[in-house]
Specification:
This protein has a domain of 108 residues: Serine Threonine Protein Phosphatase 5, Tetratricopeptide repeat (Alpha Horseshoe), CATH 1.25.40. By secondary structure, the protein is mainly α. This is HCP-like protein. Pfam families: Sel1.
């Protein structure tokens, strides 16, 4: 992918970061990505931020790759190198390479790497499906109050992924994430209220949480909200 072909959309980035201080660039990039995923933003939006950041700062991808390769003990650097490999940013797409790098960064307790690694194990994306590893990684993230991990752990309990089905536990995790602002958790709470899963059916609260999620841009919530308003 030629990143110069992607039109920048992010407006709130500090454009005065010195290019040579790549450690700051890497940490800021990963931390902002972490924030977006924690809020429940879609992968395409998060990826767009990475491309916008690189474009807006006129960063040299070759320099970034060189710096990442020469900082093999920094978990953010390892993670970002994996992210670039997964998405083909400045390099060929290699999900195997991404997997290896995510595993290494996850072993260093990098939260974003643990989350993305769990997603690969869940979907069988470049690796065999492993529900036990999905559950273990998400449990670890939830214990660290990582909202995206908390939401996915709720999904594990709801669907019996790596554990027994427990819809009440799933609802509790979704509710906690929803209260803290994760739009995917808000959507899941709304679904459970709508269909009375893990909690008593309550269409008023279903609409409330769909709206909260929709206000953050979640398209699924927008569709469900329109449908519910039309039905009741």
């Amino acid at each position: 992918m030629d990143i110069k072909e992607v039109e920048p959309t992010t407006q709130n980035i500090n454009k005065n970061i010195c290019e040579e201080d790549l450690s700051i660039v890497i940490d800021e990039l990963v931390n902002f990505y972490f924030k977006m995923v924690n809020e429940g933003k879609e992968d395409s939006i998060s990826k767009q931020y990475v491309l916008d950041y690189i474009n807006n700062h006129k960063l040299n991808l070759r320099e970034i790759h060189h710096w990442l390769l020469n900082n093999p003990n920094d978990s953010n650097s390892i993670y970002l190198l994996g992210y670039f490999s997964y998405h083909g940013i400045g390099t060929d797409i290699s999900k195997h390479k991404a997997l290896v790098l995510y595993q290494k960064a996850a072993g260093l307790e990098n939260n974003v790497a643990q989350y993305n690694l769990a997603k690969m194990y869940l979907n069988g994306d470049g690796v065999e499906i492993n529900h036990v590893k999905v559950f273990d990684l998400c449990k670890k993230l939830a214990e660290k109050e990582y909202l995206a991990g908390m939401n996915r752990l709720g999904y594990c309990y709801e669907c019996g992924i790596g554990t027994d089905i427990d819809t009440q536990k799933a609802f509790e995790l979704y509710q906690k994430g929803a209260n803290l602002g994760n739009c995917k958790s808000q959507y899941n709470v709304a679904l459970m209220y709508e269909f009375g899963k893990g909690i008593g059916k309550d269409l008023y609260l279903a609409k409330y949480w769909y709206k909260k999620s929709a206000d953050q841009g979640d398209n699924y919530s927008k569709k469900r909200l329109i449908l519910l308003i039309g039905m009741y």
